[in-house]
Design brief:
The chain is of the alpha/beta class and about 550 residues long. The protein has 12 helices and 25 strands. The protein folds into 2 domains: about 300 residues, FAD/NAD(P)-binding domain (3-Layer(bba) Sandwich); about 180 residues, Cholesterol Oxidase, domain 2 (2-Layer Sandwich), CATH 3.30.410.40. The protein starts with a strand and ends in a 22-residue tail after the last helix.
């Protein structure tokens, strides 16, 4: 059976593409190696720490030893499941800042400025403020992706926003609206108490319209006469080719997409030849430009029993689970990231370069809670590190895991920026709003003050925010380091596109699921030869950003 389009990967962008192409009357086959997204660990928002630590749902990747982090190997979760990483992520919804997309366009991604992408964010959203503020003129209604806000009924969650205000920062009613900068309520991809993944928003409606889902491991793209005509996959012991009549679209993640291109002969020629892979197109940018967000957990003990730690025991978890199973209510119905902040690190920075996720418990992503019991924490990190890494191949085996090296903390500014993150966070936690709750500083600890001590803490404790991108960079067709052109077409071959976070020229502010879905929406329109009208709404920029930090 031949479909018009074969999409590799049922993740955030791949699901969106499948839906839009089928909606336009095209036949589509989606190839996905992962299994079903059914089950409470995926669908209960409060259980978010479980699926990304389960082999059933995760590819199980980790980095090479990272010199900037003392040789540590960091886990690199990627969703191996229907919905991809949208089925195992923290469900946080951040569009990015308008200036992020201005940079994309300036770097060669023509027609990817904010006026071009804002209509796609609006088209994909079904936004619900839930009575917690917002900026309706900037938001979308009726789209496939439900975007909601939590109840923010924990006093610590509210204290974080008030502390930001007391520290002199603005409060924003909608960081996904006109004004990102400031403190306010987080958006989440949760609907009626359940995770609302790309699979629910896009893939299931696409399948209902006739799209075909094939379970198998994509090994390489198949070419005939210089044109992509299908995908070689393994299903069980059998290797076969799924054919495409029009195009093959790679949407396999910032880790797997460049690896798949290289196994198909598209990449740095010397690297491919060294592994015995025939070179179809010498594109040195494939696998390069790897970026991520690193973050630290600044943890405080709480002097009152108001944190989520009261549920962090067998009986508490059973109660939360029962509330969710029976009524889709209670703490399990939220990801609990309900307050956030976007600030600038110093005067002279035009738009926010630090992000905060606030959590009313002191706990790690792997579920390990702080020994002190009740507490709270801010996840904080710089948004625009200059450090760059790469995805390369260990061997010519198309089923072998790629080599992942982020080269974290290799730029000297990373250290300056992270120290500033810690010091600004301490200032915010020191505001009067936290006086009723603030205990001792769990980490880094009050004695960690000097640059040297802070650097040692950063080296030992910085963690990935799980936002890999950039490895099939979009740019002008004449750019020798660009991998795809501004319509997602792989430069140097015919009939092949890439559509996922790998095409980002530079990482966007905040979490990447929303921009990844937007990429799927917009590339689908490029495939179909259409586009939405530009939206020239002007975002807010601090009027005195050159002289003031807040």
């Amino acid at each position: 059976m031949t479909s018009d389009y074969v999409i590799i990967g049922a993740g955030s962008a791949g699901c969106a593409m499948a839906y839009r192409l089928v909606e336009a009357g095209k036949s589509v086959t989606v190839i996905e190696h992962g299994g079903s997204d059914w089950g409470p660990f995926i669908n209960m928002p409060g259980a978010l720490s479980y699926p990304m630590n389960m082999k059933r749902y995760d590819w199980g990747y980790s980095t090479e030893p990272e010199p900037g982090l003392g040789g540590r190997r960091l886990v690199t979760p990627r969703g191996k499941v229907i919905g991809g990483s949208s089925s195992i992520n923290g469900m946080i919804y951040v569009r990015g800042h308008a200036m992020d997309y201005a940079h994309w366009e300036e770097s060669g991604a023509k027609s990817w400025g904010y006026a071009d992408v804002l209509p796609y964010f609006k088209r994909m959203e079904d936004w619900h403020s839930g009575g917690h503020g917002g900026d309706p003129a900037w938001r979308g209604r009726g789209g496939p992706l439900h975007v909601t806000r939590g109840k923010r009924d924990n006093p610590l969650t509210r204290a974080f926003v008030e502390a930001g205000r007391q520290a002199g920062y603005p409060v924003t009613g909608d960081y996904n609206g006109a004004q990102q900068e400031g403190f306010g309520a987080f958006d989440m991809t949760v609907w009626k108490g359940e995770r609302w993944s790309a699979a629910k928003a896009y893939l299931r409606p696409a399948l209902a319209r006739g799209a075909r889902l094939v379970r198998g491991l994509a090994r390489r793209v198949v070419f005939e006469d210089g044109r992509a005509v299908g995908v070689e996959i393994r299903r069980g012991p059998k290797v076969e080719v799924i054919r495409a009549g029009a195009e093959v679209i790679v949407a396999a993640s910032a880790i797997n997409s460049p690896a798949l291109l290289m196994h198909s002969g598209i990449g740095p020629a010397a690297h491919l030849r060294a592994l015995g892979i025939g070179v179809r197109a010498d594109r040195p940018g494939v696998g390069q430009n790897l970026q991520d967000h690193l973050e630290l957990y600044i943890q405080m003990a709480a002097t009152q029993p108001v944190s989520l730690a009261k549920y962090w025991n067998l009986w508490g978890k059973a109660w939360v689970g029962a509330q969710w199973v029976l009524r889709r209510r209670g703490p399990g119905a939220s990801n609990q990231f309900e307050s956030c902040g976007f600030i600038r690190s110093k005067a002279g920075v035009q738009y926010p370069d630090i992000q905060y996720h606030f959590l009313p418990i002191a706990v790690r992503y792997d579920g390990k809670v702080a020994a002190e019991g009740h507490g709270f924490q801010a996840h904080v990190g710089p948004m625009r590190s200059k450090s760059r890494g790469a995805i390369t191949l260990h061997s010519g085996d198309p089923e072998a895991a790629p080599r992942i090296f982020f080269n974290y903390m290799s730029d000297p500014e990373d250290w300056t920026d992270f120290r500033q993150c810690i010091r600004l966070t301490r200032e915010i936690f020191g505001q009067a709003a936290f006086d009723p709750y603030r205990g001792k500083e769990i980490q880094p600890g009050a004695d960690v003050q000097s640059d040297e001590a802070l650097d040692a803490f950063i080296r030992e404790h910085a963690e990935s925010a799980y936002h890999p991108c950039g490895t099939c960079r979009m740019g002008a067709a004449e750019d020798p380091h660009a991998v795809v052109d501004p319509e997602g077409r792989v430069i140097g071959v015919e009939g092949l596109r890439v559509a996922d976070s790998s095409i980002f020229p530079r990482i966007t502010n905040g979490n990447l699921n929303a921009p990844s879905i937007m990429v799927g929406e917009k590339i689908a329109d490029h495939v179909l030869g259409r586009s939405l009208p530009r939206d020239e709404s002007e975002p807010w920029i601090h009027p005195d950003w050159q002289a003031q930090q807040r």
